[in-house]
Amino acid sequence: MEILVCVKRVPDTAENEFELNSAGNDLDRDDLVYSVNEWDNYAVEEAIQIVDKVGGSVTVITVGDDESEEVLRREMAMGANNGILLSDDAFEGSDGRGIASILKTEIEKGSYDLILSGAQADEGAGQIGGMLAAMLDYPYASLVNKIEVGDGKIIVGREIEGGNQEMNEIQFPCVLSIQTGINEPRYVGIRGIRKVASVDIPVKGAADLGIDAASVGETGAKTKRVDYFVPDTGEGAEMLEGSTGEIIEKLIEKLKAKGGL
Amino acid sequence: MTQIFAYIPFNNGVAEDVAMEYPSAAGKIDEKASLTAVVTGSGADLDKVANAMTAVYSQVIKIDHADLAYPNADIVRKALVNIIPSDAIFLVAHNTFGMDLAPGLSIKMDSAYAADMVDFEGIDGTTLKGVRQELGGAVSTHVKIDISSGAVMTVRPGSFAPLEGGSAGGSVVDKSGDAGDLSTKRKFLEIVAAEVGDVDITKSDVLVSVGRGIEDEDNIEIAQELAEAMNAVVSCSRPIVDAKWLEKSRQVGTSGQTVKPKVYMAMGISGSFQHLGGLKGNPFIVAVNKNPKAPIFQVADVGIVTDILEFMPVLTEAINDL
User: Fold this and answer.
1) Per-residue pLDDT tens for B47-58?
2) Interface of A with B in 170-199 (CB under 8 A)
């Protein structure tokens, strides 16, 4: 089985405190820590486990700048066989549709049975998988938390509300977006990264892919982010300050009053 | 005139709350827009929902087909493409069904796509301005959406003021005959119900809930000790279940349990909307988090910026000494 996993380099929400820049219209990106999108690690792990069972190969792909190569290498250190970087100045500012259409041109050059993505990334839209499937006319399922590969088809569990699971039977080729918790992604150590440090990762631009630069990037985008801001959410929490002893004394009073003790 | 269509999700013949929220979302997009509800399904449940929606919407489209008895997004999408005008605005809840349906629908309709909208600020020419969040709710963004060839958008449940009651006196239009070919390569099999755990967190008045800030499986015990001191039960956010440190039945959130405690101790929980979606009944929320920018502080009643691993044992001891 040939599996393609779409991944993304994102600011790490667990490692950063997000601040706006001095102009107040973008994140202060100077000291941001980036990593591979958390959901994508689960997708890559699932792909590796499927190939371990039924054979085939795992290719990881991303649309991004030069620095995105590091996330491809990290996923290859996990066990993905190949990496492809789609990179071009013309791709910058693409909306979800733009990213999906860039990925589609490369996907059509291969013959993948199964295409995976994380269920969502930093922008929280969860859009790329569903868009790709529609462009390719493949069946799609989102928020997948269980996969059983059969002959010519696949049994897929989707996480739905209330902790329930929706089971579906889907024909190949198909696109699935993977939810966290489907597996336990393997640890990648420095040694693993070093092993793949010199593996060649092809870089393809708009011309290589045969993409009209005007159809992607900011010019092709129908949905554009204008700015970042922190909304005025009213009062917010009453912050307790002082020594630990003082804080705990105040907190216990409040807990008593509210029925917590 | 702007045409807006809103997809009504329902369970057992009762529309979900978001059905009452679409009208205010539509009003913020364009208060002069026409608003039509779309209900898909099969049989008596469908009719019950369609008829109920006539109180809220002046026009209700129903699509009745045996293959739509379960809302399989791959099939619903095919029907909608044949029924929704391609230059219209289509709204659906940002839930597990909407996320399954909407991105692909936007491609099939050749429309703009915008996900998880929390506010709209009106249309200027062919540009709709709206608000959404990124990075797990840490920051908000304004987006401009080119609606010249229509738009498909998911809206976050609970973000738009619900309509109370309703006297639209609308009518139901049966468009089942226009649904077209509903063949699919994705067949719905069954729903596997969530496992019942050893503890029912929905029954507890006080929850000590742990998130990523607990850092390690061994530290769960620290929360357990605080819970015992408070006569409470330990619950958690999603990452703790993903890491298999606590069972799924202890997870608070839209993909876990919906709880209504009196007091909710959010320990090292950032406060994503999916987590807060499982927290109902306006509990007294105490948030403790190392990160002063954590979104949980926006919704909590009391906040403390500190490391839960240092704070919880001291609090436990203080309570035990009372």
Assistant:
1) 999 999 999 999
2) 170-171, 174, 180-181, 184
B200 touching A (Cβ < 8 Å): no
Q: Which of residues 46-85 of A touch B (CB under 8 A)?
A: none
Task: Give B145 to chain A, closest Cα distance, Å.
Answer: 4
B106 contacts A226? CB cut-off 8 A: no
* For testing contact with chain A, the best of B241, B242, B260, B264 (most A CBs within 10 A): B242
> Does the structural domain A2-220 have CATH classification 3.30.1330.60?
no
How would you classify the pairing of strands B127-134 and B139-146?
A: antiparallel
Q: For residue B66, what are the β-bridge partners?
A: none
Domain ranges of chain A: 2-220
Cis, bond preceding A173 (omega within 30 deg of 0) = yes
Task: List the single residue in A140, A161, A222 with the smallest CB-CB distance to B104.
Answer: A140
Per residue in A135-188, pLDDT (tens digit) is 999 999 999 999 999 888 899 999 999 889 999 999 999 999 999 999 999 999
Out of B142, B254, B300, whose CB is closest to A237? B300
Residues paired with residue A178 on neighbouring β-strands, in sequence order = A118, A144
The structural domains of chain B, ordered by start, are 3-178 (3.40.50.620), 201-320 (3.40.50.1220)
Token pair 């039509």: residue: B36
Q: Which residue in B183, B202, B255, B317 has the most chain A C-beta atoms within 10 A of its own C-beta, making it the best mutation to test that interface? A: B255
| Nearest C-alpha neighbor of B63 from the set B182, B184, B190, B187 | B182
pTM: 0.94
